[in-house]
Every structure is written in C-alpha cells, then in structure tokens.
Amino acid sequence: xxxxxxxxxxxxxxxxxxxxxxxxxxxxxxxxxxxxxxxxxxxxxxxxxxxxxxxxxxxxxxxxxxxxxxxxxxxxxxxxxxxxxxxxxxxxxxxxxxxxxxxxxxxxxxxxxxxxxxxxxxxxxxxxxxxxxxxxxxxxxxxxxxxxxxxxxxxxxxxxxxxxxxxxxxxxxxxxxxxxxxxxxxxxxxxxxxxxxxxxxxxxxxxxxxxxxxxxxxxxxxxxxxxxxxxxxxxxxxxxxxxxxxxxxxxxxxxxxxxxxxxxxxxxxxxxxxxxxxxxxxxxxxxxxxxxxxxxxxxxxxxxxxxxxxxxxxxxxxxxxxxxxxxxxxxxxxxxxxxxxxxxxxxxxxxxxxxxxxxxxxxxxxxxxxxxxxxxxxxxxxxxxxxxxxxxxxxxxxxxxxxxxxxxxxxxxxxxxxxxxxxxxxxxxxxxxxxxxxxxxxxxxxxxxxxxxxxxxxxxxxxxxxxxxxxxxxxxxxxxxxxxxxxxxxxxxxxxxxxxxxxxxxxxxxxxxxxxxxxxxxxxxxxxxxxxxxxxxxxxxxxxxxxxxxxxxxxxxxxxxxxxxxxxxxxxxxxxxxxxxxxxxxxxxxxxxxxxxxxxxxxxxxxxxxxxxxxxxxxxxxxxxxxxxxxxxxxxxxxxxxxxxxxxxxxxxxxxxxxxxxxxxxxxxxxxxxxxxxxxxxxxxxxxxxxxxxx
Amino acid sequence: xxxxxxxxxxxxxxxxxxxxxxxxxxxxxxxxxxxxxxxxxxxxxxxxxxxxxxxxxxxxxxxxxxxxxxxxxxxxxxxxxxxxxxxxxxxxxxxxxxxxxxxxxxxxxxxxxxxxxxxxxxxxxxxxxxxxxxxxxxxxxxxxxxxxxxxxxxxxxxxxxxxxxxxxxxxxxxxxxxxxxxxxx
Amino acid sequence: xxxxxxxxxxxxxxxxxxxxxxxxxxxxxxxxxxxxxxxxxxxxxxxxxxxxxxxxxxxxxxxxxxxxxxxxxxxxxxxxxxxxxxxxxxxxxxxxxxxxxxxxxxxxxxxxxxxxxxxxxxxxxxxxxxxxxxxxxxxxxxxxxxxxxxxxxxxxxxxxxxxxxxxxxxxxxxxxxxxxxxxxxxxxxxxxxxxxxxxxxxxxxxxxxxxxxxxxxxxxxxxxxxxxxxxxxxxxxxxxxxxxxxxxxxxxxxxxxxxxxxxxxxxxxxxxxxxxxxxxxxxxxxxxxxxxxxxxxxxxxxxxxxxxxxxxxxxxxxxxxxxxxxxxxxxxxxxxxxxxxxxxxxxxxxxxxxx
Lengths: 695, 185, 355
Known about the structure:
Largest sheet of chain C: none
Helix content of chain C: 55-70%
Oligomer: heterotrimer
Number of domains of chain A: 3
Structural class of chain C: mainly alpha
Strand content of chain A: 5-15%
C-alpha cells in the first residue's frame, strides 16, 4: 500500500520523467488535421470480420439473407475473451465467408458481408442511464455487449480493462498519438472534448482509479487547449503534456514518462495498479453508455502525400480500404504503398478489399520522398545507432546477430520479448536492415519452438501412458488366463470324464506329431522345385504339378518365404502375400494375363481395393502367427484343407465387410490379387504392377 | 632414513586430507542432473514414429545413451541432431538417409467415408490420437497427432493420408505469403 | 481503384536518409585536415601511399568477393574497403617502399576483414591489424619516417617521392637512410622513437626534448597533424557519425596516465600534452578506435573500450619495445570487446529491480 501511495504522490507532482532512446521522424500531421471530421460515404457492401479484437471470435447470430439494422449484434460473444460485432448499417447479409483480413498477412478470416440498403436504419438506442450506481457489473456487461475494444491499435476488449480484478490507483488516457501522419485522436479531441471527458469519468467509475492522467503530446496545442478546458472543474483528471518523441505513446513508455516506473518484464500495467485506455476508447464508451450506441464506426485518418484530400472520416467498421481511399482521391505514384496504421508500426495493405476494423486508425498512402522505402539490406556495421534509439534499452545489433543465427537462448538472454516492435531501430539503421522483421520472425520461431516442445512433452506423456496401459492390459490378460487354468484344474479334479477328454486330446496331439515328423521329409524333397518356381518368371511349371503336390509346394514356398523374410525385413509384409494368395485356389496363368491386360484406368480404384484386401489377408495371417503362438504351431502342421479353410474364412470375413454391390468388384480384385502374388513371386514389387496397370 | 619416513608420512597425510576434502566436496556440491537418457529423450521430437528403428523416442534415447548414432531421427531433423551433438559432446552429422528425410510437419487425416472401422490404426497409434470404435468411423485428434506415419500402413483400405500440419496466424512469419498477391498499378 | 501489393515487409516503412555509404564517406572527408598537415610536413609520399593502398584495397576486396560469390559492385560501393585503405595509408611512413603498402592492405582486406566474413564480422580493426603485421615483419621500413620537411637536408619533390617508393632511391640517388639525415647531419627518427632511444641511453626528458625535432609542445609537424585529426574528429562528432564515448575516454585515460607518470617521474616521461599531440593519438582516438565494427557496442562498453586503449597506448609508449603503441593497443582492446560487451549489457526496460 505504501508504494501505491508513493505512486500517486509521485504522479501528482506533475513531473514528466522521460524515457531512453526514441526518435524524431517528420510528423507530417498537418496534412490531415486541418479539416473537421467528415463522414465516409455509405458504401454498397460492408465486410465485417467476426473477429476484430484480440481474443476469441463470437458466434454468428445471423444467417444468409437476414435483414439487419444498424447496430444490431451480428455475433454473440463466446466464453472467455470475446466481443460481439455489430452491423454497421442496415441491409442484408449477403455472404458469410472467409475474406481478406485486416492483418499484415491478409490471411482470410470469417467475414459477414452486408449489402447496404441505403436507408441506414438503426436499432433503437440502448442507453445505460444508471451508470453512476456503485454496482458496476451491469455497466461492464453493457460495455461488453456494445463491442467496445481498445481503439489504440491492439483492440483488447475494453470490458476487461474497465473492470480489472486488481485495485487500480491510476487511469492513464493515452492521447499521445506519437505515430507520424495519424491525427484521428487529435481531431477527435478537438471536436468531441466534452464527450471524451464523460467517457473518462465512466472509466474512472468502473476502474475505481483515484486519478486520471490525460497524456497529450505537445504537438497538438489545439487539442490540449480544449481538453484542458473540458476538465477544468474535474479535480481527478489531470492533463499532462508530454514532449514529442516517438514512441512516447507506447504503453510502457508512457507509463515511464508519467510515473517513472517500468512495467516489469512479462507483467502488465495492472501489476503497477495502472490501467491505460486510448482516448478513442473513452469516446466509444461514452457513446455506448450515455447514447446507447454500439461500436460501429470510428475515426480513420486517410492521409499521405498521394491522397488528394487527406482528412479524418467517421468510418463504419467494415468499409473497405478501397471505398475509403476512393472517397479521398488518390494519385498513385509508381509502386504506391498503402499502409494500414502509421509509417512506424502499420502494415502494407496487400489488397484494397481489406476492411476497416476496430483497430484501424489510419490509411496511409505516402510518397517515396517523405517515407523512403527501405533499400537493399547491407551488412550491420554495429554502429549502435539502433541501441541509442531503442526505448526498451535493448541491443538491437546483438539481437540481429542472434536472430540471423537462430540462437533462441541468446535472444531470450538479450530480452527479445521486451522488444515492443516500435521500429525505431530499423528507422535509424544506416544499413537499412529490416530489424523489426527479423525480431518478429524470431519471436514467431521461438513461440513455435515452445509450442512444439510442449506438444512433444504431451506426446511423450501420452506415449508413456499408453505403454503403461498396454502393460496393464497384458498383465490382466495373463492373470485371467492363469485363473482360467486354475479353474480348469479344479474342474478336472472334480470331474473324471474330463480326464478322458484330456487323454483323447493327448492322443490326437501324438498323432499330429507323427504327421509332423513325416511332413518335413516331404517338403525337403520339394525344396528344390519350390526354389525353382520362386525364381522363375514363368508360372508354367506350377500348372504341371498335380493339386496335391501344389499344396506341398505352397507350404515349402511359405517356409522359403519365411526364411527370406528374415533377410528382407522391409518387404516383409508384401512377400507374405504370395504363398497364401496362391494356395487359396489354383489360378491359371491365362487368367492373370487377362486380368493384367484388361486393366483400364477405371479399374485402378478396384485394383487398389484388391491390393488392400490382399494386404489385409497377409496382415491377418501375420497377426495370427505373431500373436498366437499356439495357432502358429498348428499352422506349421496344417494340412491342405486347413490352409484352404483359413483362406476361405478370410475371404468370407472381408466379404462380410463389403456391401453386396462390391462383391463383383471384389472378384476382380481377387484375381488381381492373385496376379499380384504371382508377380511378386517373380520378384516384382507391387509398385511395378501398378505402373503396368496404369500403362 | 628418517627423512624418507617423514616425507612419506607427510605425503600420506596430505593425500588423506585432500582425499577427505574432495570426497566431502563431491557429496556436498553434487550436481543433481537428469539421467542422460531423460536429457536425450527431452531433445527428441516425441513423434514415436520408430523411423530410427526403435519402438519410440525413449528407446532411441536409451540407444543413444548406449552409443548409437545421433542422426537417425528424420522428424527432428538437423536441429535435433545439433542439440544431441551438443549434449553428447560429439560432432553433428548429417541426417542418415536410410531412416528417411526431413519433411514438413504433417498430421494424419482419415478419409472418413472410406473408413471401415477396423480399429487397426487405433492400435498402431503410439499416442492414442485416433478416436473410434469397431465398425465405426475413426478420426484423428489433430492436436495430439505427432505425424509419425505409423497408422498409414496398417490401414486395410488406405484411407489415411499424411497432410501438412495446419498453420495458423499466431506464428505467421513476415516473409510467408498466405494469399495470392500481385501489384496492379 | 483496385489496389494490390506484394510488399510483405514489416514496419517501419520510413527510415533516416543516412546510409552506411554516407557514413564511410563522411569519415573519409573528415581526414582532410590531418591529411593536409601530413602533406605539408611529409610531402607527396602520403598521396602516393593513399593511391596505392586504396587501389590494392579495392582490388583485394573485389577478388575475395568474387571468390565468395557475393555481389561485387554493390559491396564495393559501401566504401568500407576504401576507408580501410585510406586509414592504413595514413599510418605507414610516407616514403615506405611500395610493397609495404601492398602487403599491408592485402592483409587487412583479405585476412582481417573478408576471412572473418566481410564488413561487420571482423573482430579486429583491419587497418591496424595490417599495420601491426607490417610493423612486426618489416620494423625498419615501418619506422623509417623521414623528418618533417623543414628539417630535411634535401627537399623531396613529387618525382622523388615516386621514385623512392618504387625504387628505394630518389632521382638524385639518395637512399632513405640518407634522407633521414637532418640539416645537422644527424640521423633523425620520429619524436616518439627518438625519445625512447635517448631515454634508453640515460638522457632525461628535458634534455631529449631540446633536440630540433621537438618544439615547445610535441614534435615539429606532429602536433599539427594531431590537431588536424582532432578537428576532423570534432566535425564527425558534430555530424553524429561517431559518438563521444570512445574518443573522450581514450584521451582522458591517456592524459590521466601520462599526467600521473609525469608528476611522479618528470625526467622519464613526456608531458600529457606531448602524449596527446604525438604519434597517432588523435588519429586513433577519432578514426581508428571509433570503427564501430571492432569496437564495443554498448554505451558503457565504449567508455571502457576507449579507456583500455588509452592506458595501453601509454604503457606501450613508456615501456614497450615500439615507439608508438596505438595499433597494438587497439588490437588488444578489440580482443577484449566480447568480454566488455558481455559485462556492460544495458538493463532492458522492465528488468530493473523495483525500489
């Protein structure tokens, strides 16, 4: 508490402290502040982005074809940091689609396109008469429903800052407007001083601040005069005239100027019991509370040497840059730049269909002479001009070095995230290095890397939890088996007839063993033949062998394949298809040929299905052999019938999955699968087959 | 004779003292650090893709700790290799092509109308990022997908595609062009 | 009007109109006063050396740039190579043989500058590194400064300068050692060289400075050269090309050291004024130490950097093996730059302890 009191005491002395660095670019404000605020013409179409503030977009309330009135909410704020947007004029909702956004990237965002009916009819005003009541929750809700966002540039939802959880000592109204060219706040103050002060009083009430400092740069004498006059009798509003220096209007810099305090890194002004609002926001709050009008228009400066009639305009949110510029007239020079915002922090307008949003304070069309474009980037000579200009006392030259070499740790060590991207460093750089661009990219990279890291950590945890779960399940299965075995043993002891069954089973097992000992001899004989079949490209010898031998050969091949499998780990799954697909039936060579020849482009899809089925079978076979050791043991002694049965079961299973219409397809597929198996046997891979099919 | 004896004695006493001091220091000022495997694991991208030849990132981390090469991780790419090289104190090498190439970040996408609901991909997914049940359509939880590719092979109907991970405005870089632009005037 | 742009360029959109090329050019202009003084006292040789060094610098830079496949014309036009050549030419004896200039400049540009990555990446001041290489390799040629014109037995014409630089002899057949003979027939060295030699032979400072090469403040000619560079440096300061930190701290620390020593040991040391106006003091303070690439980059760091150079200049002049210590002092300070930068990083906004 002690320190807070000191804060107010310090502030009340009226001292202006100053901040390090800063630059003095040509102001060029006289271009646009000579005339009163004009009204932008009613356009035919308005492009209202659903998200015009920092935070989450609201839910769209209207649908295509809906008639809307000016001031009607178009979206409903969703949970969290969210604001509604309102119809800028009366008309019809023509389209709801992604449209170029008012962002440097121009990345399309969901936009409501409203066709104006020209009447500009409004919904009835909803003033909040009882705003001085001590309970402010309803008032804050009203401010939120009116869609008020910070009009200084960041468009942070005002209802949050108007009613902070923290105790607030000091409210600062930012009317510094330090960016060259822009005069939107300047003219707003000149012509609406009384209303602004009303808005300030509402803010003082909601925040509970004891004092308001109204900061204006000393290059706006007219505005200073009217504001001073307007708050003559308000003893809790002090006007502070700050010297002209860019970026004195930056939130952190202005706090330093007025209070000598620095907002600690990664903290907010609220942590110093300070809250800052833009002067335009104060005006919008007055409009919303006293006049009951939602935020549907704002003052936009249209200026620059290429603009015929530079001026400030009351512009409906959603007006395209194109309409606005057309109204003021433009004489474009070669490669004319259009900038949304000021020359120091604005961004190039990539497409003039970009709409004006809550954060848009200026459309600038400068000449090359007055705002010289950056030339070719030269080497940094470490002159240190940038460090001298940096208001955050960073070392831009070092940051550049580490940005280029992507040393993220070093960048954080050199406090990259305390960079406010004011552009003073790049402005003074004699080597014309786009420093801010490097920092922005590095910031994006670091954030991305952090997110990747968090994601990797999450993936690691999920992986480990999965492993643990699988292990648990395995243990549970084992336990079940043991219990079942235990039960059987008990049942056995109780029931004698079971003993006979066991004896019978043992006898069967013996018989099988005998069979087994004969089988290897048989397959051993056929070993050579099967190898020959494997290596030959012609399947003819296969046909010569009678059915019984064929099965034996298939088994032998299967064994050979298994050996091969050990060698060729990569082709594992594919090579296994061959013996099974082949042993299922006795395919003829001609049929395969036919199938291959008949392949038309339309059949490629069928072929894929076929491949999938073949693959599925192979997988299934593999799975059964891998997962169930008992089954694998049985398989080794399987007779001709059992193999065939197994394959039939497989086939019927996969058929069960298919719709009846697909059965025909599947038959073709089976044929192709066989063809494929043959081909593979001939040491061609599946890719070659597909290529042939395509031919 | 006594000189030799005293000098030996002095040396022995000195050795004892220093030994005691060193021993004490090693206990008192012991640097607590993660086991090497955990440190390596923390550097790996945790895609659990198995392209390195081990069933997941942790096993590969263990293998590296036991002396395996550090250049077998395609999803991590050169950046991961560099970090691993720094940690292990060895020279960074280029990525071992045998294990694949560095690619843009991808996520799995199931063409849902073609999915037959076989649950094979669910079993293959190392991070449980696929949702679905038997005979019912499956889908990928994009935020959880590591892009490991392991679900693609088991799919019997080949309905899983690896698509580039969606990018968002949050991390937009100033040299990325997101919309078609040209200069008209 | 439909408008589209493909300029994906981050703010800010404007910039100051000062470019790196202009910075380099202004530094070159600023040498004019000192250069004029050097011309008056040491004759045409200075100009020939400048022509030689600048030509070699440009050729060497062009060669390396083309080998490195970098844009040659654009990079040459930044003027940094010309400036390096100019500074080196002003440092070497005006009548030094031509290969001195060639070797020194080539080393400066190729090894010291381009091998480290070109402009902006060199750890050491190229001109001074080149100078030191020459000084170590060819100590005789590099300390062979002829006496100021008014003390010379033979006057040197324009043609004499050319022939002695390229053939070691003047048109009349005099060699460099003959030229060094003063009017009284005694071989003359630079004031600093002379002072050191005489001091070693047991003379006191006041006895030494009786010699004709000294006047009431410092060496004849040299004080004017130093004053010339001081004027040029002040002009640079006024134009905002260089900042005051390095020159001021350098001169202050040199003055302090020499004053303290002179106060204690007036027989063994030069006066602070003599230190300031001798050798390359002013040249170093305003033109060499202020090279931003190899200097410290923080404000506090620059003050330390200048102070270190000042102290080192004094130490080398007083006790070192070479008459002047500017080049060594600058190189040693260059080596300390990373350390200085690390410990003088300013506290960024929001990181100050709240109190």
